[in-house]
Amino acid sequence: MALPWRSTALWLLILCFNVQAAVDPSKVRKIPLRSHSLSSPFLDSEISSRFFEFGEDTIVRTDQYIRLTSDRPSQDGWLFSRLPLTATNWQIEVEFKIHGVGNLHGDGMAIWVTEQRASPGSVFGHADKFKGLGIFIDTYKNHRPGTVFPYVSAMLGNGTESYDKDNDNKDTELTGCSARGLRTASVPTKIRLTYYQEDSFRVELQYKAADEWTDCFETGALKLPPVNYLGFSAETGELTDNHDIIQVQSYNMHISEVWKGTESGDRSGKNRKGKGKNYDPNRGRQSGGWAWFFLKLLLLPVIAAGGYVGWTMYRASNRGSRF
Ligand SMILES: *[C@@H]1O[C@H](CO)[C@@H](O)[C@H](O)[C@H]1NC(C)=O
């Protein structure tokens, strides 16, 4: 008898979960994230940066770069944000340069959006069995027949699975792309990561010409751990290269058209002009607000029924114990 009401609620629930199916770029406002951006001179004081930390073989040349590894054997270095990335949707653009004098070179570098931070390890100089996203710019082919290198790929680590180093991420990758010429490009090389929690994760590269972005890959929605740090790492073995970070620009990609959630009733967009008015780093949690509301609505009769049964049984057993 309660069936029609229930199916309506269910339908609404499904609707709520699917509202943000695709992101309209014209509705996105890019808000710079200072805490996750870096540029020369990189440091605030003689030796440290307020927002980033670095270690192992990493060196900083304040007028030029942060060098994760130098063009020498057996180097590894890392650079990590001190604060977690709290934006629900974000974009990270990195200018980097991989270069060296030898004929053979390696091994490459990684960009991390992971729960782990500042933990040296075996995957391009940082910890294996990571939780979160690893994006690898692999300049040396271990064993991956038929694939052109440099090869850029991603892995979504679950905290227990190991990166497939022997086959250059073949067994563990989400997806990837070849970027022939990335290492010897005549223009500044860049990578851009764009993440929309409910929608997609996209990687683009710039290495063919200045201001020309080449699509590397795009995936569907990815679920990241609740706390993530932005990091970079690189390593050399027998083969060597300089792996330099030149600039990092990060943005909170704020979707301004929020008709669901806390801004009740305001669908006109009238109140959306105020500077930073809609800025809310916790929006991700609130976007589930309606879904939660309906879920609770759905659960209410169940809880009420359970409570009634419990109360009746309690009464019955109380009565029983008296006899
Ligand atoms: C992580 O992924 C691996 C391989 O798919 C799987 O065997 C393992 O159970 C997963 N671990 C967790 C904690 O989900």
Which properties best describe this structure?
323 residues, alpha+beta, Jelly Rolls, eight-stranded antiparallel β-sheet, 3 helices, 16 strands, binds 2-acetamido-2-deoxy-beta-D-glucopyranose
The count of β-strands is 16
Largest sheet report: 8 strands, antiparallel
- As a percent range, the share of helical residues equals 10-25%
Overall radius of gyration: 25 Å
Bound molecules: 2-acetamido-2-deoxy-beta-D-glucopyranose
- Total count of helical runs of at least 4 residues: 3
Specify the overall morphology: elongated
Global structural class = alpha+beta
CATH class of the largest domain: Mainly Beta
Strand content: 25-35%
Order of helices and strands: HEEEEEEEEEEEEEEEEHH
CATH fold-type name of the largest domain = Jelly Rolls
Q: End-to-end distance, in Å?
A: 39 Å
Q: Please, what is the average pLDDT?
A: 85
The domain count comes to 2
Uncertain stretches: 12-20, 261-287
CATH architecture of the largest domain: Sandwich
Transmembrane segments: 290-314
Pfam family, one: Lectin_leg-like
Membrane topology: Single-pass type I membrane protein
Domain L-type lectin-like: 30-253
